[in-house]
């Protein structure tokens, strides 16, 4: 809901009505765990302007890779792995059991997978996958995020992947190494909001 603020114009008599931005729902990550014990760190790296396709909040404004042609939202999960030939997949399971992944790019609750590399023409050697919540208040409950090496495609091992996660105003990051094999090709994270 927008609220109106009345300002007096410095250019002469009269009043100017300005619409104040709406407040976003409060979203906080709780019980953040990695099945494999991977530590998560702050993804804010105060390196100046935002660099694209690195899954890091380079300018510390609480948004990952904004202005880079990918979707952002209160919840955003981004993988980046440079120009490796490997196919790495990002899968989000939301509290109601719906999954967002390459084969199901949208959900009824508002999640969208908007980049799936390699394979899309727009990757150009900057592999990235991105799932974000489009608008409104995201569903409350437990989420599961999987990062999986789907196909090595002759890439060097280990495949190094940066995971960036935005949950409300919190931004997390982890450097992952994926190897072919039953226990090393997938990393799993869970959290609740």
Tags for this entry?
single chain, 193 residues, mainly beta, Lipoxygenase-1, 6-stranded antiparallel β-sheet, 5-stranded antiparallel β-sheet, 13 strands, 0% helix, disordered N terminus
Fold and architecture overview:
This protein has 193 residues and is mainly beta. The chain has one domain (25-192): Lipoxygenase-1 (Sandwich). The chain has no helices and 13 strands. It has strands at 4-8, 15-19, 30-34, 41-42, 75-80, 87-93, 99-100, 111-116, 128-133, 142-151, 159-167, 170-178, 186-192. A six-stranded antiparallel sheet has the order 4-12-11-5-9-8, with no helix packed on it. It has a five-stranded antiparallel sheet with strand order 3-13-10-6-7, with no helix packed on it. The chain is globular. The chain starts with a strand and ends with a strand. Mean pLDDT is 83; it is low at 1-21.
Termini, distance in Å?
A: 23 Å
Q: Which stretches are low in confidence, meaning pLDDT under 50 for 5 or more residues running?
A: 1-21
What is the overall shape? globular
Describe the sheet with the most strands: 6 strands, antiparallel
Radius of gyration: 19 Å
The ordered string of helix (H) and strand (E) elements is EEEEEEEEEEEEE
Output the number of helix runs: 0
What is the share of helical residues?
under 10%
The top-level CATH class is: Mainly Beta
Tell me the number of strands: 13
List the domain count as a whole number.
Answer: 1
What is the residue-averaged pLDDT?
83
Strand content: 35-45%
CATH architecture, by name, is Sandwich
The spatial strand order of the largest sheet comes to 4-12-11-5-9-8
- In terms of quaternary structure, the protein is single chain
């Amino acid at each position: 809901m927008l609220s109106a603020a009345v300002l007096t114009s410095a250019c002469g008599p009269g009043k100017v009505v300005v619409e104040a931005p709406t407040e976003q729902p409060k979203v906080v990550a709780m019980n953040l765990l990695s099945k494999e014990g991977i530590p998560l760190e702050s993804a804010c790296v105060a390196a100046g302007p935002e660099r694209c396709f690195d899954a890091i909040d380079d300018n510390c404004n609480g948004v990952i890779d904004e202005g880079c042609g990918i979707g952002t939202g209160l919840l955003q999960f981004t993988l980046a792995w440079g120009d490796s030939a490997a196919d790495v997949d990002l899968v989000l399971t939301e509290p109601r059991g719906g999954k967002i992944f390459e084969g199901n790019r949208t959900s009824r609750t508002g999640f969208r997978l908007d980049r799936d590399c390699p394979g899309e023409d727009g990757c150009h050697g900057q592999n990235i996958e991105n799932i974000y919540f489009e608008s409104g208040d995201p569903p409350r409950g437990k989420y599961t995020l999987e990062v999986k090496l789907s196909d090595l495609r002759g890439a060097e091992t280990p495949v190094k992947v940066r995971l960036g996660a935005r949950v409300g105003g919190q931004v997390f990051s982890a450097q992952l190494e994926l190897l072919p094999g039953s226990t090393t090709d997938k990393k799993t994270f869970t959290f609740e909001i």
